[in-house]
TrEMBL record:
Coiled-coil intervals: 227-256
Domain of life: Eukaryota
InterPro entries linked to this entry: Znf_GRF
Gene Ontology MF, one: zinc ion binding
Pfam families (alphabetical): Zn_ribbon_GRF (PF06839)
Region (Disordered): 1-23
Ranges of biased composition (kind: Polar residues): 10-23
Record keyword Zinc present: yes
All residue ranges annotated as the GRF-type domain in the record: 49-91
Metal-binding among keywords: yes
Protein keywords: Coiled coil, Metal-binding, Zinc, Zinc-finger
Designated name of the protein: GRF-type domain-containing protein
Organism this protein belongs to: Triticum aestivum (Wheat)
Length: 278
C-alpha cells in the first residue's frame, strides 16, 4: 500500500510503500521508496514468492540501516501479502550504517520538533480563539452600551437655541473680562514703568550718595593724616620747647647762683670798704 509520510515535504517528495508482516512467520517487509531503476515485477530471475509462487516486486528499502538497499518482496496487496523478502544488495559497511542511523535520528528529532511546534501552534490558536471570543463578547457589550447611550440621548433632547444663547453670553462675559484684564494690565504696565523710573532715580541718588560718602571718607582719611602729621610736628616742637624750658631753668639757676655770689661778693666788698673807712 502506498502512502505519504509526514516528513515528505522536508526529506523527499517520493511516496513510501509499506507491507505488513506475514502470518507465516516470514520476514517483515521494510518501508520502501519507489526507484525508477529498480521497480516493477522481477521477471528475469527465478525469485518468485515462496507462498504464492508469483513474480516478486522490486523495491528499495527506506528505513534504518537498510536504507538504499534493493530487495525483492511479495507483490500481493496488504492483507494477502505473505511477507516474503529477498535482499539483492549486501548489508552496508558499519560506517554507512552509523551514518544512516544518525540521519534517521535527525529525521526523528525534526519530526518531534515539528510535532511540538504543531502542539504549540494548537495551544496558541486555542488561546487566540478564546481571546477572539472574549473580544466578540466585549464588542457585543459595547454595541449594547452604545445603543443604550443613544436611546438615553434621544430621550433627553437638548435645547440647542438655549445652549447657543448661553454660549454667546459666556463669550460676551469672557470678552468683557478680557477687556477689563487688558485695562488692568495696561494700568499695571504704566505703574511698573513709573516704578521703574523712580527706581532709576533712587539708584542714581544712591550712586551719588555713595560717591559723596566715598569722597568724604577719602577727605576724612586725608585730614586725619594731615592732623596726625601736625600732631607729630607739634609734639616735636613741644619736646623742643620742653628742652629749651629745661635749659632756661638751668640757666636761671646758674644766674641765681651767680647773682648770689655777686651779692655775697658785694657784701664782702662793702664790709671791706667799711673796714677800710674805719
Amino acid at each position: 500500500m502506498v502512502f505519504e509520510d509526514e516528513s515528505s515535504e522536508e526529506t523527499s517528495s517520493l511516496p513510501y510503500m509499506h507491507s505488513t508482516s506475514s502470518t507465516d512467520g516470514l520476514n517483515q517487509v521494510p518501508f520502501s521508496v519507489e526507484d525508477q531503476d529498480h521497480q516493477g515485477l522481477e521477471l528475469e530471475t527465478m525469485s518468485p514468492c515462496e507462498k504464492h509462487g508469483k513474480a516478486s516486486e522490486r523495491l528499495v528499502a527506506f528505513e534504518g540501516t537498510d536504507t538504499g538497499r534493493r530487495f525483492l518482496a511479495c507483490a500481493e496487496p496488504e492483507g494477502q501479502n505473505c511477507g516474503f523478502v529477498e535482499w539483492v544488495d549486501h548489508q552496508w559497511p558499519p560506517t554507512m550504517q552509523n551514518a544512516l542511523l544518525k540521519l534517521w535520528a535527525m529525521v526523528e528529532d525534526s519530526r518531534s520538533a515539528r510535532v511540538n511546534d504543531n502542539l504549540e501552534s494548537s495551544f496558541t490558536i486555542h488561546h487566540l480563539t478564546e481571546e477572539k471570543n472574549k473580544l466578540e463578547a466585549n464588542y457585543d457589550k459595547l454595541v449594547q452600551d452604545v445603543h443604550e447611550l443613544m436611546s438615553f440621548q434621544e430621550e433627553r433632547v437638548v435645547d440647542f437655541r438655549h445652549l447657543q444663547s448661553a454660549i454667546t453670553y459666556q463669550h460676551e462675559c469672557r470678552s468683557e473680562l478680557v477687556a477689563d484684564m487688558k485695562a488692568q494690565m495696561a494700568k499695571r504696565d504704566a505703574e511698573s514703568e513709573k516704578l521703574k523710573q523712580n527706581y532709576e532715580v533712587l539708584l542714581n541718588l544712591t550712586r551719588a550718595q555713595a560717591t559723596v560718602i566715598q569722597n568724604l571718607k577719602l577727605k576724612h582719611i586725608t585730614d586725619k593724616q594731615l592732623l596726625s602729621e601736625v600732631k607729630m610736628n607739634l609734639e616735636l616742637k613741644n619736646a623742643e620747647l620742653t628742652k629749651s624750658e629745661e635749659k632756661l631753668t638751668q640757666d636761671k639757676l646758674e644766674l641765681k647762683f651767680q647773682v648770689s655770689d655777686l651779692l655775697k661778693g658785694k657784701e664782702k666788698h662793702g664790709e671791706e670798704m667799711v673796714q677800710l673807712e674805719l
